[in-house]
Known about the structure:
- With 366 residues, the protein is an alpha+beta fold.
- 39% of the residues lie in helices and 17% in strands.
- It contains ten helices and 13 strands.
- Strand 2 and strand 3 form a beta hairpin.
- Helix 5 packs antiparallel against helix 6.
- The two termini are 41 Å apart.
- The site of zinc ion has 8 residues, from loops.
Amino acid sequence: MDNKGIGRYDLSKFCAVLAANTEFPWVSKLNSMARQASAERAWSAIARFFDNCKKSKPGKKGFPKFKKEQTHSSVEYKTCGWRLDDDRRYITFTDGFKAGTFKLWGTRDLHFYQLKQFKRVRVVRRADGYYAQFCIDQKRIEKREPTGKTIGIDVGITLFYTDSNGETVANPRHLRKSEKSLKRLQRRLSKTKKSSNNRVKFRNKLARLHLKVSRQRKDFAVKTARCVVKSNDLVVYEDLQVRNMVKNHHLAKSISDVSWSLFREWVEYFGKVFGVVTVAVPPHYTSQNCSYCGQVVKKTLSTRTHICPHCGHTQDRDWNAARNILEKGLSTAGHVGTNASGDIDLCMGGETPPSKSSRGKRKPKE
Ligand SMILES: [Zn+2]
């Protein structure tokens, strides 16, 4: 913020300066590669901001924020500063913080990978505890038989989506369900005194509930996306700018709640895993055109049925839209998968483990 023209390497070099500075004794305690990792992450936030400005991306440009220690503290180690024990059920941190050895609880078998595949370890604090995330260099390819099926998806508010075959998936609306208790906790929190124990307690309760909602949301997105991708050879969806739509406040909550963008990220991810083509098409006229004769049939949001005066084709509005979306996708073959952020980085959130076998048996010792 204070110096112009600072680049990635200046940030890297500054790590050593900070480590030598007695004002921040904790910097020298942190493993040197972890220091570098944190400089890299800071730089990626700055670079993304510059990039958004350069491309004059509409809306907010994402000015880098300082991390909130209380709620978003995390540290990222690279290949040293930590060690897995032989049975890979304990992790020991070996840098100057002397954090010690921790038992790992989880459903993933770390024996499945070679040690050299472990590229990074992130320790992340969530409202309900500390998590170790292992970034593993492994190409995930899963086999699937071609089904010969294609699908167009029209996402909505009352229904999560309607596809080009007329199938619908209901919207679980997790947030709405938890809304009452969220509100109650929020009210309770605002009545507590600042920096009191009570405040800490209620802040944590609220954070846990938010965490629960976001996990339910992700779980739903992952499972639905996996199912859609696995059973089709081509998946087409609209290239929606959710950021712009959330500006409409009547729809805002429902739109964020159904978490289309999360769903889409996972569709694109599973597309890579299963080798299925995913296409995002521009959302213009998908609901207005007739999917049978192609003529424009104007309708408002409240018109739920598409009735074509030109050819007499009658179909549910969303079903008609989904067919148009599929049609667009088939005609723009070659223009494949858009992914605005470049690399898919879903490991911060982590995929929902397939089984929950070891849950319930967990008992914290220390
Ligand atoms: Zn028609």
